[in-house]
What we know:
Elements: H1 2-17, H2 25-41, H3 43-57, H4 63-89, H5 97-116, H6 125-145, H7 150-170, H8 174-265, H9 275-306, E1 313-316, H10 318-335, E2 339-344, E3 351-354, H11 355-372, E4 378-385, E5 391-397, H12 407-410, H13 418-423, H14 431-441, E6 445-451, E7 455-462, H15 487-501
Parallel strand pairs: 2-4
Antiparallel strand pairs: 1-3, 4-5, 5-7, 6-7
Helix pairs in contact: 2-4, 3-4, 4-5, 5-7, 6-7, 6-8, 7-8, 8-9, 9-14, 10-11, 11-14
Amino acid sequence: MRRREVAREIRSAREKLTSTSGLERAFDYELVRVYAQYRSGAVIPLALLGLAIAGTSALWVPPLIAALWGACLMGAVALSMFATRRFLAQDPEAVTVSLWRRYFMVCEVVQSTSWALMILVGTTPGARTFVLFGLVIVAAVATMLAATLPAAAVAALIPLNVAALSLLALSQDMDTAMLVAMTVGGQIFFMGLARRVYASTVGALKSQAEKDAIFGELEQAKANSDEARRRAEEANLAKSRFLATMSHELRTPLNAILGFSEVMKNEVFGAHIAPSYKEYASDIHDSGLHLLNLINEILDLSRIEAGRYELNEEAIQLGYAVDECRHMVGLRARSKGQTFHEFIDDTLPRLWADERALRQIVLNLLSNAVKFTPPGGEITIKVGWTSSGGQYVSVRDSGPGIPEDELGTVMSSFGRGSLAIKTAEQGSGLGLPIVKGLVDLHGGNFVLKSKPREGTEVVVTFPASRVMDALPALDLPSEETPDRSIEPIAEVKRGRAAARAA
Length: 502
């Protein structure tokens, strides 16, 4: 966002430097366009106002003079109408804004001068009052219509002010002086009001420009997102095809490698001439098993990420499954002198879950604990109830721990902590992501707690909705009050027995 703000400010500054009004170039055109629309829409009201004033002025001047003044005014209004409509009809890209701004200023001067000629009517006190009143109305209309072009508004007021002040040459009485002063003051007030309208219009244009920019950025971001999603879908499809192909292509030779290496390791067809051959066969077999396990982990993680991992759910005793997994890793733990501490609640009811996935979760957690716990360390296993009625499995070790800034790394695919790399055997970095994915599929929660030199604890919780509550005992009828509902069944049985005997 900061980068976009800086880019927007630089673009705005460049636009202002190349503009003639100190605003962005797009605002220059918009202000002139708004002026042209206002003037074009006010042609008929201005013509009617001019005809009304010309007709009324016939009360003080000969009708011919009034008619000539009206014709002159209609010509100025027609000139302004022709100019504004011609401007609106042009392509915005081909418009020279500065030229049209000067042209509209000339039109304003011509039209205001035509309105100012109404002072020819002001030969009597009543006529002077009428003329000053008309000049105030025209000044208000001109400043509001030309508010988006301040220079044009000023140009429109100059002839009107000159006309109002010229009436002082015809009469020096106090009433005329007061009326002229009020007229000039009103025109100045309208000029200030026009500045406020101009500022409001500029603010509205800026707001609209910001909205347009935001909409443009949103559309661009949506287009980028759609393109990224399309590429991600293509990459995911290619990955799935690759894994499906490579799993078959790798497992087929791996089965042969594992089989023949196991035959040679166990010396099924006789002892090796060189004892080192048996060690080589054992190394080949162990490497093949490691590669096969890695392939299986990659495939499991890919299925989980793609949402294609199907759960075969059944009723499972969580404590019993954890104890079995502990026995499976017990040999490795004893070889390193590690000690298990088990706190398993044997009264837990069964859990509705996928047994293979559950065992994989526990085995991965226990394998990591054994792998990263130093010789002579301790591993604590807890299985019990959660506060919400679910069940949990906790595995805590006394290993090197994980720094807080590396917790996100170890939870990513192929991610490993720096301390674990230095102090333990290398792993694939897929164990914890697979565990979290399987826990999420069960609707559970995965929590990793670790601090350097304080060990690591992983807590996996299963929701209460997966806990199978024991059904209540059936209320069977006693022998003293036999249930009449079973008599028809007994009759049917006796009838079938009699039929078989016959």
